[in-house]
Every structure is written in C-alpha cells, then in structure tokens.
C-alpha cells in the first residue's frame, strides 16, 4: 500500500526535494501528498508547487499559542488523510500533544550522529570537539528533542581545514541520500517501531568501514 506522506518545512526544503525526487520512482512505496510550512514565505512551498504537490502554509504567528497552532496543523493533516510525516527543516519544537498524536508516524533528519550533538549548531560543535567523523541521522520523533529511535545513519569524514560550511555541505549530500532510503525502509515494512526501538526485518553485511584519517 502506498503511504500518503506530508513533508513539514520552514525554509528552502532541500531534503524535501530529495524525498519528492525519490517518490517519482515507480517502485517507491510512498506518495508525497502535501508540503506544509509554518512560514508563508518558505522557498520550499514554490518548489513543491512546481512539482504539482499541494503546498500549504499555516503561519504559526497567526495563533495565540503553540497548542492552537498545532491543532490547526493536525486538522489539516487529517483532512488530507496523511499517513506519515517527514520533518525536513521544520524549525518548530513540537509539543508532546502533537508528537503523541503522530507517535510512530513521524520521522526527522538531524545533522549529527545521534546521540551526539543534539539540538542546533551541530557542525560547529563537531569541529570544536575535534571528532574525526560526523554525519546525519534519521529517527522517529518523540517528545524529547532529537532522542527518538534511530532508523538510519550516514557518516562522513572531518578533514583538516574544514569549516562549518564545508562540513555542512558534506553532511547535506548524505542527508539527501539517507532520508529517502529510511522512508522506503519504513513504508516497505523492512524497519518498524517495536517496544521503543527500530526492528529490521532484513540482515545486512557488517563488512567495511569508514576510517578517518585514511
């Protein structure tokens, strides 16, 4: 069964574009049915419309509380029979009420190898800590920020001379590949949430590694 996916954004939506492009494949098990932003000026809305996807803005500033904003958000998603949510640069911390309403049906991508560097400024903190590998994580959303069960991760080297911008660009390339892969796993049932952990139906090779420095 093809899942109806909503992508929530606040900006340009580069990860949104990677999901839309992946969903064009005939065998992809999900349809991007809606792109929704809390900012009417988000650049990703126009990009979604260009792809013939419904694009909707619900301005959080028009609501008196986080709760009333999220109630409007939830109503719009349910009116469109959305099965699953992908957060893609959605710059709002969601309340436990909303997260629990969509428990097990909402993914996020975070620019670090969780549980390292939760929150913001992940690339700066990675450089300050002197780690030699960095990366990104797709995880289920839970009420605690960036703490949900992990679905997939990708690793990149941190090299001498890296800046926040160069490291961010390297990680972003992996985000664009990883997010569609993780969504496919979930929608095909090859990864599922069970007892607060992600369970995989297929085994994979334990060979190979990324070593830094080479």
TrEMBL record:
Residues at the catalytic site: 110
Pathway annotation: Purine metabolism; IMP biosynthesis via de novo pathway; N(2)-formyl-N(1)-(5-phospho-D-ribosyl)glycinamide from N(1)-(5-phospho-D-ribosyl)glycinamide (10-formyl THF route): step 1/1
A GO molecular function held by the record: phosphoribosylglycinamide formyltransferase activity
Sorted UniProt keywords: Purine biosynthesis, Transferase
Domain annotation Formyl transferase N-terminal: ranges: 4-183
CDD domains for this protein: FMT_core_GART
Site (Raises pKa of active site His): 146
Protein name (Swiss-Prot/TrEMBL): Phosphoribosylglycinamide formyltransferase
Organism, as annotated: Microvirga terricola
Binding locations of (6R)-10-formyltetrahydrofolate: 66, 108
Top enzyme category: transferase
Record: residues binding N(1)-(5-phospho-beta-D-ribosyl)glycinamide: 13-15
Database matches in NCBIfam families: PurN (TIGR00639)
UniProt key word Ribosomal protein: no
Protein family according to the UniProt entry: Belongs to the GART family.
Organism domain of life: Bacteria
EC number: 2.1.2.2
Reactions catalysed according to its record: N(1)-(5-phospho-beta-D-ribosyl)glycinamide + (6R)-10-formyltetrahydrofolate = N(2)-formyl-N(1)-(5-phospho-beta-D-ribosyl)glycinamide + (6S)-5,6,7,8-tetrahydrofolate + H(+)
Role according to the record: Catalyzes the transfer of a formyl group from 10-formyltetrahydrofolate to 5-phospho-ribosyl-glycinamide (GAR), producing 5-phospho-ribosyl-N-formylglycinamide (FGAR) and tetrahydrofolate.
HAMAP family assigned: PurN
UniProt keyword annotation of Transferase present: yes
